[in-house]
Amino acid sequence: MTYVFLALAIIAEVVATSALKASDEFSRLWPSVLVVVCYGLAFYLLSLVLRTLPVGIAYAFWAGLGIVLVTLIGIVVYGERPDMPAILGLGMIVGGVVVIQVFSSVASH
Questions:
Q1: Using only C-alpha atoms, what is the Rg of the chain?
Q2: pLDDT at residue 107 is higher than 70
Q3: pTM across the whole model
Q4: 31 near 90, Cβ under 8 Å?
Q5: 36 by DSSP, 3-state: which?
Q6: What are the CA-CA distances from residue 19 to residues 29, 45, 62, 105 (Å)?
């Protein structure tokens, strides 16, 4: 269940971050409510993950996958276009998460 909780935490964080932009500096009610609720849920789920995964590994997945997913939402929803250095950097982040998952014995803790 650890990785299920981690996936749900990442999804909640991505929704919250995307709603943060839509909240227009917390001037729009429903996106602002979504920010608060989803960040609360994300941190609660992350706290469950930390029962079994080391904080560094959990945070690597959380941050790495969150960055990539938020970037994809920025592209699809907000029409943002990352340049080539940004795309290369995102690729390195994904590569780092893959290296941890495939080669680290700590990730299977």
A1: 15
A2: no
A3: 0.86
A4: no
A5: helix
A6: 11, 19, 18, 35
Nearest alpha-carbon partner for 2 in 50, 39, 42, 38:
50
| Angstrom distance (rounded) from CA 83 to CA 94 | 17
> How many DSSP H helices and E strands does the chain contain?
4, 0
Q: How far does Cα 79 stand from its chain's mean position?
A: 19
* pLDDT per residue as tens digits for the range 21-47: 999 999 999 999 999 999 999 999 999
> CA 32, CA 68: separation in Å to the nearest integer?
22
Q: Supply angle C-alpha 44, 71, 14, rounded to 5.
A: 15
